[in-house]
Amino acid sequence: MRRRKHVPDPTPAPALPELPENRALLDYFRASSALPRGPDDLALGNWQSHTHPDLCDRLSRLVPRHPVESAYGVPVLAFEGVAAVVACGMDILLVRLPTLPEDVEPAADLPPLTDGEWRSVSAWPQGPPSAGREARLVALLREALVHARDLSRNRPGGDTGRAGRGRTGRQGPAGRGPAGGVR
Known about the structure:
- It is built from three helices and eight strands; from the N terminus they run βαββαβββββα.
- By secondary structure, it is of the alpha+beta class.
- It starts with a strand and ends in a 30-residue tail after the last helix.
- Mean pLDDT is 81; it is low at 1-10 and 160-181.
């Protein structure tokens, strides 16, 4: 996350690729995307940010070795280009999982995304801060990354790495290397 004029980001977030698995997510955020309106607008990639800077920082800290990508101004964690976790607004994390584990409390829905394969959770779980809550949230994000890995490997031509994927319709620069810790 950066302010365009004041703090240049030495490692801008690469754009999430236009893969079939990302279509619904990209369509949703593309519809509300905008270019930064001025030098003081917060930007992520080439787009005006739609996520609070504190939540962007939190996402980066929860899975520190994993690169953050962008989808029209929204930070995303992905595995080989397949979106797994999205930070929205001030406090929502969308995780790509078939269902939420029973011990995880859902947050407000974000239709139409949460009508399908995305689940909404709070980035700051309720109750007093505890190592257990934080560890559970980190585990949930890793579960979503593993699910994205499985999706990427179960498609025709899957598990070829990002360099082998088509890039037509991409929003910006090419992606980054392997997912930190999820293989």
